[in-house]
Amino acid sequence: SVETEKMIGKYETLASDLLTWIEQTIIILNSRKLANSLTGVQQQLQAFNTYHTVEKPPKFQEKGNLEVLLFTIQSKMRANNQKVYTPREGKLVYDINRAWERLEKAEHERGLVLRNELIRQEKLEQLAR
Q1: Closest Cα to residue 12, out of 84, 58, 66?
Q2: 28-75, pLDDT tens digit by residue?
Q3: Angstrom distance (rounded) from CA 98 to CA 38
Q4: What does the alpha-carbon distance between residue 13 and residue 116 come to, in Å, rounded to a whole number?
């Protein structure tokens, strides 16, 4: 049906957009370019916290909505005895979940690097006094 086709299009667009965001965010999180001052590292840590509390939660919500959308599409097609839609390789829920796991890993490592650098910069600051 036209409605199902629209839903499939929406799924594919949202899946592509989310995967693009995940990949771009992983690149940013994997950057080991750190500010060379206590203030600079504090600002980087603040930006990281903003990512964690402001930017990431709606993306997590989108990930959940995608799973619901796919389930809805597939249920409708089953109910109408249609060949059930399966996303292309790379856009499966499984692929999105794997990408998300890589995002969480990059995020975890970024947090550790920033906290360790903060401690190092604080020690340098104390030594300079």
Answers
A1: 66
A2: 999 999 999 999 999 999 999 999 999 999 999 999 999 999 999 999
A3: 35
A4: 39
